[in-house]
Amino acid sequence: MTFGATRAVSDVSFTVEAGEFFSILGPSGCGKTTILRMIAGFLEPTEGKVLIGERDMAGLGPNQRPTAMIFQSLALFPLMPVWENIAFGLEARGAPKAERRAKADELLKLIALEGYGERMPGELSGGQRQRVAIARALAVEPQVLLLDEPLSALDLKLRQHMRAELRSLQKRTGVTFIYITHDQSEALAMSDRVAVMSDGVLQQVGAPRDLYDNPATSFVATFVGETNAIPGKVSAVENGVATLETAHGPLRGRVGDGLSTGKTGKLYVRPEALRPDGNGENALTATIERIDFEGAFALVHGALAGDTPLVASISNTELGSAPAIGSSASFGFKSANAVVLPDG
Amino acid sequence: MADLYKRFGGGLGTLFLVIVASWIAGMVLAPNVMMIDYALRPNLPPSQIGGPDDIYSLDNILYLANESVHRAIFYKTVWASALVAFATFLVCYPLAFWLAQNATPNQTALVLLALTIPFWINEVLRTLAWYILLAFRGPLNAFLLGLGIIDEPVRWYGDGGVLVGMTYAYILFMLFPIYNSIESLDKSQIEAARDLGASTWRIHWRVVIPHAKAGIATGCVFTFMLAAGSYVAPALLGSPGSRWFTEIIYNWFFEGGDWNRGAAYALVLLVLCLAVVLITLRIARVSLAEVAK
Amino acid sequence: MSASDRLMKALFGFYMIAFFLYLFAPLAIMGAATFNVSRFPTVTPWQGTTLQWFDALWADRAMWKSLWTSIAVAFFVVLIALPIGTAAALLLTSLHARARSFLYAVMVSPLLTPGVVIGIATLVLWRQLGVGGGVFLIVVAQASFISCYVMLMIAARLQRFDPAQEEAALGLGASKFMVFRRVLLPFLKPALFAAGFLAVLQSIENYNTTLFVRGFDTPLTVYIATKVRTGLTPAVNALALIMIAVTIVGAVAYEVMRRRGAARQGGVTGAEGATSA
Asked: Which pLDDT score, from 0 to 100, does residue C85 have?
């Protein structure tokens, strides 16, 4: 599927493979919902095209496209029993009642809600309603399932459970999922690939691991996961390694997109790449301000000269050898674990 | 308009549009336009309609201005309707305040239910009840005579009877808007005022009434309009000396046989009511949307 | 408790008693008079207890005729006002702010027009078209303003509608007509019933408008008012008592229906009320 459009979102082109779990990640107002609604057919792009398979969707209404959407509010029909909700799409296609009922029962089985067909949506729990909404969308056997932050109304525990369930449903049905979210951990955990958006502009498309390790832009570097950013000026670029002159001395990291000698930029290094024992080709000296214990690991907050904050993550087995608060400690990191990206 | 078609498609969209257009144009606007047309034409025998005498003029309206009896009845209707609105306000305000601020939820539910019962019963029956109560040889006189408060029966029918009957008929139109608006007043505001040493009167005058302004305006507007346009209360509870403007209009139509003059009088009544409504709402800064709740 | 507080409390208690006496005494006396032998409806003096006035009412052919007239009028008013009110409410929600507030003002204007004026305006328009007063004009005149009430009730219900439901249905392949029939209309059903009930009541109650357009037909309210002039007997009280009983039963049934509906809807709308980004 190819996609391109302008204005509320501009110059967004990407291709989603068949059978893929694809997420669009970005802060609210970045244009991700606009894109989803264009794919669904509730909005027509002013420029550009939406193709599904090889077919151009221009001029086709939402009821003519091989897509189904799951809304943030779920939009279950409150006055129809669960089975009629699920079979609604078949009813729209004029299927006889027996066939609709059979299909509904089949899908109820798929979502592990057998025997719930006669209940009203209002009588179900939040997670159950979620699953009914998915079954209703799957009943029309769409090529593409569009999900608009469907988990945002659930509490944390249920949300984590539903992530796993969504992922397994997708694998079992083989339907292409396009999933919208502003929650990066959700996108990283579930998706085959993720597109990161900001201000209507596509920042990067890639596998979760790829986005995390090789952010293409400074937005991606800071939005996906925790990171430390240290500003400076590029003094050398050679063999895929850039040297950045910073207030804390020269630091080296992998060369990011669009970087060349003389440009200003930032070096990004993840908290877990910083070693409190000072190992690595680079070193940063910080005054320790506090240590936040998070369970499996702890976050060490420090300040570099000039009050630039620095965060390092250490596993709790290392906590005993952690530097004392108020002391000065050296953090090392490997150049391979840092990336230098140009500003802007 | 485009949204209507986008949402419902051509067939349903057009159907809705046609239905609403026939209502607004055919049942609301056209009758009023025709009434204005009638009001501005002279009353002529059928043979002269469309003839040289059939011209627009303000004669019918000027007739009202120059007819001293009708003019007096018109003024009486205006101030008496205002009096009805004011009396209804006085009757309702304490209860509305108590319901909104002091009553327990159970008390509120019970009282609201008790209030709705007479409201569901129609105006003619409510007025009939007063007609029976206020009769010369009726229960009220018998009761007062029995207590020795009066020595001989009182003729209640007349201006007093009309005022009491109308106030009774429109209580709910006043009570509910005021109740709704006082309910949204934060109780701590009243407590703060009391804490600062304000008297009960001052609390109501300076805190509660300004807050409930929109509700009070709504209630007064409705009560005034209903009173000025009422026919049944003056017809049943009035006396020959207490005629109401609507009775004059009725007579032009069904006894005087001059529809044009009747239409002119009705037009004056309509303009009066709309003016009172719009001016009151403007003064109280209430929008139409708030009134129609 | 200070003396002034006690005084206020006593005053308020007195006011409450007076208020509810004012509210119910006339109705109670009217009802009680039904059972008095006296030819003029009163409770003083009590001339003996009887049920004869129910028989007299039962035998009153004019009353029965006017009752049927009222029922026929109410039936047709509902038939006209429900589609008008619904279409108007739907049109309002599909308009942009400016046009909406203008059209809204036009639509609620009949509520702020005195009832006699609505009757008169309808009467003069239709005379011009060669139609005189009668059941037809009563229906037209009543429907012109009862539609406003319907519109307000439907519009209130529509405010709680999640438009994503329509989009969901469309996305599942439904036609626009099917969306209307299967999603929107069922959602509006409770409001349509309530509005229909209110419309019947408004229609049967109406007097001011009806009086001018009735021609030679006599609906129930006109019949009662005429009786006062031509010879009031407690038979009319018997009628009033029955109407009061029917309205109370209807009002209670309406309240129960409304509350049950609210309770059943509450769970769904509450949980699905999440807004979209």
From this structure: 96
Lowest mean pLDDT among A4-13, B46-55, B70-79, C101-110: A4-13
Provide the CATH number for the domain formed by B67-291 in this structure: 1.10.3720.10
- What residues make up the domain containing A308? 226-342
Confidence check: pLDDT of A4 > 60: no
Domain closes at, from A175, A200, A218: A218
Encoded amino acid at C152, one letter: L
Q: Which residues pair with A278 in a beta bridge?
A: none
pLDDT band of A6, cuts 50, 70, 90: very low
pLDDT confidence bin for B77, thresholds 50/70/90 = very high
C98 domain-assigned: yes
Cβ <8 Å between C87 and B289: no
CB C142 within 8 A of CB C218: no
Q: Are residues A196 and A172 in the same domain?
A: yes
**Boundary-marking domain end, from A155, A187, A218:** A218
Of the candidates C29, C128, C204, the beta carbon closest to that of B132 is on: C29
pLDDT tier for residue C277 given thresholds of 50, 70 and 90: very low
Tell me the per-residue pLDDT of C82-102, one tens digit each, with 9 for 90 and over. Answer: 999 999 999 998 888 788 888
pLDDT for C271 equals 33
Domain-located, residue A156? yes
Note whether C9 and C16 are within 8 A (CB): no
As a residue count, chain C comes to: 277
Query: Based on the structure, what is the number of domains in chain A?
Result: 2
| C128 part of a folded domain | yes
Contact C52, C38 (CB under 8 A): no
Q: Is C204 on the interface with B (CB under 8 A)?
A: yes
String of DSSP letters for B155-217: --TTHHHHHHHHHHHHHHHHHHHHHHHHHTS-HHHHHHHHHTT--HHHHIIIIIHHHTHHHHH
- List the domain range (segments joined by +) for residue C130: 68-219
Residue C209 lies in a domain: yes
User: What's the complex ipTM?
Assistant: 0.88
Instruction: Tell me the chain C residues in contact with residue B266 when contact means C-beta distances shorter than 8 Å.
Output: 116-117, 120-121
Q: What CATH number is attached to the domain comprising A195?
A: 3.40.50.300
Cα–Cα distance, A41 to C218 (Å, whole number): 57
Mean per-residue pLDDT, A18-33: 88
Same-domain check for residues A159 and A58: yes
| A193-198 vs A201-206, strand pairing mode | antiparallel
Cβ contacts (< 8 Å) between A40 and chain C: which residues? 167, 171
Distances from the Cα of A42 to the Cαs of A63, A179, B6, in angstroms? 10, 17, 11
Nearest chain C CA: its distance from A222 CA (Å): 22
Nearest in space to A329 (alpha carbons), one of A274, A291, A286: A286
Q: What is the mean pLDDT of residues A262-270?
A: 90
Q: How high is the pLDDT of residue C17? A: 93
Confidence band of C153 (pLDDT split at 50, 70, 90): very high
For residues A26-46, average pLDDT: 86
Interface check for C228 against chain B (CB to CB < 8 A): the answer is yes
Give the domain ranges of chain B.
Answer: 67-291
Q: Specify if C245 maps to a domain.
A: no
Is there a contact between C224 and B250 if contact means CB atoms under 8 Å apart? Answer: no
> How many domains, in total, are found in chain C?
1
Q: What is the mean pLDDT of the segment spanning A294-321?
A: 84
Residue B168, CB-side half-sphere exposure with 13 Å CA sphere: 31
Phi-psi region of A48 (alpha: psi -120 to 50; beta: other; left: phi over 0): left
